[in-house]
Amino acid sequence: MNQAIEIKKNIFWIGVNDRRTHLFENYWPLPKGVAYNSYVIIDEKVAVIDTIERSRMDDYIESLEATLNGRKVDYLIINHMEPDHSGAIKALLCHYPDLTLVGNSKTFPMLENFYGVHTNLLEVKEGSCLNLGEQQLNFYMVPMLHWPETMVTYLPKEQLLFSGDVFGAFGTLDGGIFDDQVDLEYLEEEISRYYSNIVGKYGMPAQTALKKLGGLAIRMICATHGPIWRSHIPEIIAKYDKWSKYETEEGVVIAFSSMYGHTEKMADLIGRFLAEKGIKKIRIHDTSKTHPSYMINDIFRYKGVILGSCSYNGGIFPTMETLLSELENMGIKNHYLAFFTNKTWAGGALPRFTQFADKMKWEIVAPHADASGSPKSQDVEDCRNIAYAMAEKLKA
Ligand SMILES: Cc1cc2nc3c(=O)[nH]c(=O)nc-3n(C[C@H](O)[C@H](O)[C@H](O)COP(=O)(O)O)c2cc1C
User: Separation of 201 CA from ligand 1 center, angstroms?
Assistant: First the structure.
């Protein structure tokens, strides 16, 4: 079955939906699946831009062959080497052995390492052009969006930007492929979660890329995941700009780790006290139940972060440790912070929280609350103090 869709004359989307994979990069949950988008330009020369993840190879090759109707692929543009886009390279080479692989100096060592491929290479640089006949491709390097070799490809005649992972989204394309054909409200969290989980670590490179690409006239953004943007281009660019500047909203994420419920009680107290001060956007997460993906997404959105943990074997609870190390890896900036802890003997959670605060350089708004078991009246006051101080900061 040919699943290709013409998005402009002689330019096709040949993507596939993946509803089976539970975890993207074997880590990030995919409750609404994910789409892998590849594109084909048919001109005097035929160019494919990025491929797909290998599990759906047969469908992909079938669609490609049907679309090309006997013609061969001349160029494969490799914007990004991550296997969810490079997974069909070897299959393409088997079908089209004369194919030229187009990448930059950082692409080709990865190509050799992943697939043992080192011939038929055409190296491009920032500003290089490749003529296909009527159409021409321009290349721009966007390193660390999301790997060092990442580049984007621009088609000036049609004003299409093949943006790789940039402007991508989780979620399958359930019928529509353009932003005006899909339910963007339904996909909203999957768009922001894709940014915060996958691209979010690279705020600075994202800002550099936005400035570099800002001068291009763009009629469509064709990303490798999620819908093709054509009706909401300013909105998605504005979102990327805001997210990559770490701009946040008024609201507080309370994430806690608790075995027997005492630390959770402190989380609820803090939530209640925040509400008393007019904070409405309060998201309380149990780190043992909620995947870091969702907590990180909320932390990208809201300025206040309050973290609580029981002590565990002289340290912090394991699921809180996972969250802290993820946040440290991502280097998220620009938050207000406070802590609460719980113990039965010598404690242990606090030193790890202190280490986290030193690393993140977020502003601590109040001294931490430290209860032994069920919160007593002083602990309640300490929780109130944290909440009120956080609310005051957020309202200032
Ligand atoms: C396996 C295990 C390890 C623990 N390690 C510590 C510890 O290192 N220091 C401490 O003061 N309490 C320790 N505790 C006790 C809990 O931190 C304490 O009971 C706390 O009040 C539990 O909070 P919760 O009700 O939110 O789970 C440990 C408990 C368990 C089950």
Answer: 33
Rounded Cα–Cα distance for residues 317 and 358 (Å): 19
- 45: DSSP letter: S
pLDDT at 2 over 90: no
| Atom 31 (ligand 1) nearest CA | 312
Cβ of residue 351 lying under 6 Å from some atom of ligand 1: no
The type of residue at 252 is V
Strand 302-312 relative to strand 336-343, pairing: parallel
The helix or strand, by DSSP H or E, that contains position 329, with its residue range, turns out to be helix 318-330
Prediction pTM value:
0.96
CA distance 228 to 236: 11
Q: For the chain, give the mean pLDDT.
A: 97
State in Å, rounded, how far the first CA of the chain is from the last one: 59
- The set of residues, in sequence order, having a beta carbon less than 8 Å from that of 92 and lying 6+ positions away, is 48, 51, 61, 64, 73, 76, 99
pLDDT in tens, 257-307: 999 999 999 999 999 999 999 999 999 999 999 999 999 999 999 999 999
Side chain identity, residue 282: I
Residue-range domain boundaries for the chain = 5-244, 249-395
The hierarchical CATH code for the domain 5-244 is: 3.60.15.10
In the CATH scheme, what architecture does the domain 249-395 have? 3-Layer(aba) Sandwich (3.40)
pLDDT average, residue stretch 152-169: 97
Average pLDDT over residues 214-239: 97
Contact 340, 369 (CB under 8 A): yes
